[in-house]
């Protein structure tokens, strides 16, 4: 028997395709199937019962699911926008610095090295109502006399989670935007100034369009692992208090492992996966468009 | 004259504002980490003290001694976790690098049908949330019987790292001019030789940083590890961190110490790659 002759790129890509198919695509197909069954870990034979779209119907009519879904979207929107603005600000601050840029850049990368679990734990510690740094500082400064229940009150807990998320991911934006600032030619900025642009106009119409692709790279990278907010939430509040910080991913985890309702959880997970994929495709498109625009202008 | 001095005042004001802003930003970035380090060195009484003790009186390495001193205080097998983390991260990084190099080279040097589609497809596999992926993997691995083994974790992390490794290595190979390899081939090298003797050394630092990035991803991953690992056989450090929390109490000092142990390798490695990492990620944007 003779193997069909494969072209060089196919051959080179084959290992990657095999691994990804075996570890990611096949399991996902399996979970797609099991999302149509009432599968429970405790009842293995239930995998063979086909119930059609019943899981999806019960997920989509579930109030708890939609609150978690909405909360996830709100959290991501707030966090990503905050990260973008703060990252931009931080990059500009560092770019303006006349001395010690190297060390500033290194410090700026600091949060990137923290695993999300560590970030979660660290902010759980800082926001602890009794011994946390934040409350201690506020009380020592006399801002408040009573302890603020950062992680115990639902809204404050969500706020704390956003702070943790923003802290950990702003540097991704800052670094990439700074890379853009450093690579940027100075002539257009000077020309704009000579032509009488205000600093704001210079930024808005000269600098920002230039930085766009860099911001989109950062967005794309972030969209690849938005779900790591799961780790942070899991550690900080575990969806509590009273499910006030439950996100899509913690809900999936709880349904699957605590309630052992795998079929239902897989249906939920599929909705989460679709969300992630839409997000990523959207930013890849944007990235490609921004790239082309820059290419055309140069 | 008056106009001049007011202008100067304004500029000086802006400069001070800039410095203050920079200082505050860096403070926010660094403070949480420093606080963890400090807390790991203080006795529990001092961490718990009310009113808070701001200036540490009693600094010691007791927490680290207890942690590495075997099953002493709390009995958390940090050495085993550390070993598991190292074995899993290093092995998966090496495999991901080999696969990533093949794939990255294909994307950088060949034209083929559906190239951008394949690339996007690879990236999408990375976008699947870990917790969602953990459900089918858990079911399959439980059936095959590889739950709680190094093998399972290595396999998962290879798949997790391949897409991003390809992205980075693709960028680095593109920075190496095509002509060099062609010149080498004209001089009598085979394509294989040209790759190893010309292109590989030039893209080397970039590939190394892609490797470090993959290592860090595996080192830090939690969502999947927390479901697939069960015992000291394969538990990694991020999962082990949770051993310090029990139902009602948390051993803050021990947790802080373990956090420091986790962060030190990550810190060192990131410092080494920072320069290459950014250039690898942004390359596509600048040159198209």
TrEMBL record, chain A:
Its membrane topology: Multi-pass membrane protein
Transmembrane segments: 12-33, 73-94, 106-127, 156-184, 205-224, 267-284
GO CC annotation, single: plasma membrane
GO biological process entries: transmembrane transport
Location(s) in or outside the cell: Cell membrane
Gene3D superfamilies in UniProt: MetI-like
Superkingdom of origin: Bacteria
Residue ranges of domain ABC transmembrane type-1 in the record: 69-283
InterPro entries: MetI-like, MetI-like_sf
UniProtKB keywords: Cell membrane, Membrane, Transmembrane, Transmembrane helix, Transport
The family this protein is said to belong to: Belongs to the binding-protein-dependent transport system permease family.
Protein name per its UniProtKB record: Sugar ABC transporter permease
Organism of derivation: Phyllobacterium endophyticum
Lineage, top ranks: Bacteria, Pseudomonadati, Pseudomonadota, Alphaproteobacteria, Hyphomicrobiales
TrEMBL record, chain B:
Annotated GO biological process: transmembrane transport
CDD domains reported in the protein's UniProt record: TM_PBP2 (cd06261)
Keywords for the protein's UniProt record, in alphabetical order: Cell membrane, Membrane, Sugar transport, Transmembrane, Transmembrane helix, Transport
Function according to Swiss-Prot or TrEMBL: Part of the ABC transporter complex MalEFGK involved in maltose/maltodextrin import. Probably responsible for the translocation of the substrate across the membrane.
Recorded family membership: Belongs to the binding-protein-dependent transport system permease family. MalFG subfamily.
Pfam families: BPD_transp_1
ABC transmembrane type-1 domain ranges (all copies): 82-273
Entry's transmembrane regions: 16-38, 86-107, 119-142, 154-173, 194-216, 252-273
InterPro entries noted in UniProt: BP-dep_ABC_trans_perm, MetI-like, MetI-like_sf
Organism: Phyllobacterium endophyticum
Keyword Transmembrane helix: yes
SUPFAM superfamilies: MetI-like (SSF161098)
Compartments it resides in: Cell membrane
Identification of the protein by name: Maltose/maltodextrin transport system permease protein MalG
Top-level lineage group: Bacteria
Chief location bin: membrane
Membrane topology annotation: Multi-pass membrane protein
